[in-house]
Write a structure and sequence with these properties.
single chain; mainly alpha; two-stranded antiparallel ribbon; about 5% strand
């Protein structure tokens, strides 16, 4: 029995339950629960250290465990900030992830161990079920005509070439990195990391990204001798198909279902726009804006345009709302597509519970 887990489990259940409930009710994760969770984790780990020093064999106390735990929480903080910065989740979700990373003992992670960042398993156990649930909802809520339309859109040639270049170029250095840190090849972790890298690079480099991908691909052809064997191509095809389904087909298909029209005059702070408003030749226009700030080729035409507001996971600011309302008569349209509220805390809590129940990466256990 994992006695250390028993010490932390009540607080994990409490934080997960209360934040999930409040996120559903108000769309907010309150800082007092973040501070409570972090304080509990700090105090409990100090008490564990003191117990070994004064009441047990101090030789059994592994300082490396606490060093790894601290680094794990630091990595969770950094990655949480990155995911917030690129728009995948809100600041509250990022802080909640850090809290869970501090509360879950490393002794839980038997499957899918990632040196100094076992909390990454929580993300995998969160996002993959989220996408599965999301995909099932969309499959039942959309018509066959819509599915065919969005499938065709997902298979557009320019988009597929771009995706192939990215995967071909980045899988190679990612595998080298895994070997350097002595991490076994992990299909689900690889997809998750590639997903994040693609989002970050698109945000930072935009127009120059194609040149970066071509350079990486050329370097791989020159230096990676494994491309002359079947295995890397088999892996590339599997990940390529996974990205088409998850990043394009599901994302595109969810656009209509997950958005609604809201009058400009009824816009409120915190609403997440599904359309960007920009100026083109002196006229205001709108363009579809995919969720999670994925800057797909649908938004390429905005790269050289002047946008009215910046899109973040936090949604419209008060300044953005006031600006749009002042421009209402000049805009030429009365409505703006807004994403329906997506409460992510319950999914993260589910990911935490799956991590504890299956002792790490759920999908490694299954497959």
């Amino acid at each position: 029995m994992d006695y250390i887990l028993l010490l932390f489990l009540p607080m994990i259940l409490f934080i997960g339950g209360i934040t999930s409930y409040q996120d559903r009710m108000s769309g907010k994760i309150r800082n007092k629960w973040i501070l409570l969770g972090l304080s509990y984790a700090f105090v409990m780990n100090i008490l564990i250290i003191l117990y070994y020093i004064f009441f047990n064999d101090v030789s059994l106390l592994r300082l490396t465990y606490f060093i790894e735990l601290i680094i794990n929480v630091i990595f969770a903080l950094i990655l949480g900030f990155i995911l917030w910065d690129v728009g995948i989740w809100t600041a509250g979700d990022a802080k909640l992830f850090m809290v869970f990373s501090a509360l879950i003992p490393l002794s839980v992670f038997h499957y899918g161990h990632v040196p100094y960042f076992d909390a990454s398993n929580v993300l995998i156990n969160t996002f993959i079920p989220f996408f599965i649930i999301y995909a099932l909802i969309l499959l039942f809520k959309t018509t066959i005509k819509q599915k065919i339309f969005y499938l065709k859109k997902s298979l557009e040639f320019k988009q597929l070439i771009f995706l192939f270049l990215f995967l071909f170029g980045f899988i190679w250095p990612l595998n080298i990195f895994f070997k350097l840190i002595h991490l076994p090849s992990n299909y689900f972790f690889s997809i998750f990391i590639l997903f994040i890298i693609l989002t970050i690079i698109e945000k930072m480099f935009k127009n120059s990204m194609v040149y970066i991908l071509v350079c990486l691909s050329v370097l791989r052809i020159i230096f990676d001798k494994t491309i002359f064997t079947l295995q890397p191509w088999f892996i590339l095809i599997i990940i390529f198909i996974s990205f088409i389904l998850l990043r394009y087909f599901i994302l595109y298909m969810g656009y209509d279902y997950m958005t609604k029209y809201v009058d400009i005059k009824l816009l409120k702070k915190g609403m997440v726009p599904a359309e960007n408003v920009y100026v083109d030749n002196g006229k205001y226009k709108k363009s579809p804006l995919l969720h999670f700030s994925l800057l797909s080729y649908m938004q390429e035409k905005l790269n050289e345009k002047t946008t009215v507001f910046n899109v973040t996971a936090e949604g419209l600011t008060k300044k953005d709302v006031n600006k749009l309302k002042k421009l209402e008569k000049k805009l030429g349209f009365e409505h703006l597509r807004i994403y329906k509220t997506l409460n992510f805390a319950p999914y993260m809590f589910l990911g935490v519970l799956l991590t504890i129940i299956f002792k790490g990466n759920l999908f490694i256990v299954i497959f």
